[in-house]
Each structure stands twice: as structure tokens, then as C-alpha cells.
UniProtKB/TrEMBL annotation:
GO BP term (any one): carbohydrate derivative metabolic process
This protein's record includes keyword Isomerase: yes
Keywords: Isomerase
EC number: 5.3.1.28
UniProt GO MF annotations: carbohydrate derivative binding; isomerase activity
Organism from which the protein derives: Bremerella volcania
Gene3D superfamilies: Glucose-6-phosphate isomerase like protein, domain 1
Protein name in the entry: Phosphoheptose isomerase 1
Keyword Metal-binding recorded: no
Primary enzyme class: isomerase
Domain annotation SIS: ranges: 34-197
Amino acid sequence: MLGASLDIAAYIDRFKAELDKLDQAQIKKWADLVYEAYENGKFVYIFGNGGSGCNASHMAEDFGKSSLREKDLGDESLRRLKVLSLTDNAGWIMAVGNDIGYDQIFLQQVMNYGQEGDVVLAISGSGNSDNVLKAVDWANRHGLKTLGLTGYGGGKLRDLAHHSFHVPLDDMGMVESIHLAIFHWVLNDVFARINDEGRYAK
């Protein structure tokens, strides 16, 4: 826990330093995958455990509500970004976890929902969460596009997913913070493309 030994200024400096290490091509690919799903009418599924699960919920909410201008949300004619957090169906998660096994909670949902060409955003700080890996493996074998969001050394997920957004840092809190911070750029980029704004203005 970096904040246990670093004061506020040093912690912020370290956060900035870690941001500078990121592979910007990975960030751009993340945005491309989501925008392509929007263009092709495909679903985006997001999931993870603990803080990563909360990030999945946050990302799905923002992608769902904030990919269109607020004034356009009542326009039934507009195409929508189809996005779902698989961390939010508590009843299904508890039933699968209790009756089959916790390692199945995302796999069973992806098997129900997932179709070829859909996108999976799988979040695991360690890269070794078994329930995440099982769902990504199934998605890979059934024609879905997969992106792993990882920290530490990337674990198995970094190599298993088709694409990677990796934060090479051994601190879960800062890894999760960076995942969410960079997500907001991805969201803004997708919004700008959908709505022809900013650098995508026509």
C-alpha cells in the first residue's frame, strides 16, 4: 500500500509517474474496441472482482448514459451503445456461486449473453482471477473480442486476452485508480466519435 509510506505529495507524484509509463496504444485500442462495438451493434460486457467489480459497474453506467449527449437521451431513433456489467446481477451471481462455484459467475453469464463479435472488458489487478480467466477463455473460443485490464505482472490474463491494458505496478489501489482514470479518457473518446465532437468534429 503505497499510501502507507508515501505522504500526499509523494503519492500524487508516484501516480503521475505511473501514468507516464502507460502504453498509449493499448489505451487507444480499448477505445477502438468499444467504438467498433457501437458501430456494429455489438454488446460490451465488463466484469471483475472487488474494486475491479466496482470499476466494472462504474464503466458500464458511464458508457451507457454518457455515450450520447444528455439532450439526446430521449431520442428513440438514436443508436445506443449496448453495455452490461456482469458484476451487478446479484441474484444470478449468488445462485451460480452457491450451486456451481464462484469460478463460474462470469462464465455462465457470458455463455448466456455473448455472441460472436461482442466485446469483453475483463478486469483483474493480479491478472489471475479464475472466474475472470474462465469467462475470457470461453469468449476467445466463441468469436468475442477480449481486452484484459491488469496490474502487477499482468498474470495469465495479460496473455490470454486478445488485447491488453496493463498497469505495471504492484499496488492494487493505484492500479484500480489508474484503470478508472484512463477509462474516463476512453469514455470521452468514444463519446466524441459517436457525437462528432472535439477532435472528431466534422
